[in-house]
């Protein structure tokens, strides 16, 4: 009986050992593979979520691309890449002609480099009746290129007699002296910049326009 009991015990131990071998050799590696697959699946789902978000953002960006391009064109017109002083003179002359002021002078100054834009101070003087001067100031404020008036002096035109073709007779005229600032993203324009202004042609007045006083075409 003892021998049979020992034999059964050894047989049982052998069976347990065989089961352990099977678990260690077959089941555990499969379990590890399953866990690895689960981790890979979780990572894939995370990447899929990220890619879905990126795709959504790209679709929105593509949708707004045309609109952003139009805004960029407007911004480049308001604050161009270089000084374009002839353009400033042309815009101011057009504003004077359309508002029918009697006299105007423009004196652009050298651009001064700043941290993000260069500033172009421009001295402007106009003479005309109240509504003409008011219209000129409105057009100056609403012209395509950004302009900021930093100082302005308004008073009656005290000139007597006839000067530059303007008679002192008739309705009272106003004289307005103002300093306006225009801007460019060119940081190499004007004094204080490095290496300095690179396009000398931009500093020349437009044909037919001079910094000296001249009658308006109104």
The DSSP helix count reads 3
Structural class of the helix and strand makeup?
alpha+beta
Strand content: 15-25%
CATH topology heading of the largest domain: Alpha-Beta Plaits
Please give the domain count. Answer: 2
Give me the CATH architecture of the largest domain, please: 2-Layer Sandwich
pLDDT averaged residue by residue: 75
* Main β-sheet description: 6 strands, antiparallel
What's the SSE pattern? HHEEEHEEEEE
Q: How many strand segments?
A: 8
Calculate Rg over CA atoms.
40 Å
The CATH class name of the largest domain reads: Alpha Beta
| N-C termini distance | 134 Å
Low-confidence stretches: 160-166, 195-215
Global shape:
rod-shaped
Describe the structure.
The chain has 3 helices and 8 strands; from the N terminus they run H-H-E-E-E-H-E-E-E-E-E. Helix 2 (about 85-100) runs antiparallel to helix 3. Strands 1, 2, 3, 4, 7 and 8 form a 6-stranded antiparallel beta sheet that branches. It has about 220 residues and is an alpha+beta fold. The N and C termini lie far apart (about 135 Å). It folds into 2 domains: about 1-80; about 85-215, Ribosomal protein S6/Translation elongation factor EF1B (Alpha-Beta Plaits, 2-Layer Sandwich), CATH 3.30.70.60. About 50% of the residues lie in helices and about 20% in strands.
Topology:
Elements: H1 2-78, H2 85-99, E1 103-108, E2 112-113, E3 118-128, H3 130-142, E4 148-156, E5 162-163, E6 166-167, E7 174-184, E8 214-215
Antiparallel strand pairs: 1-3, 1-8, 2-3, 3-7, 4-7, 5-6
Helix pairs in contact: 2-3
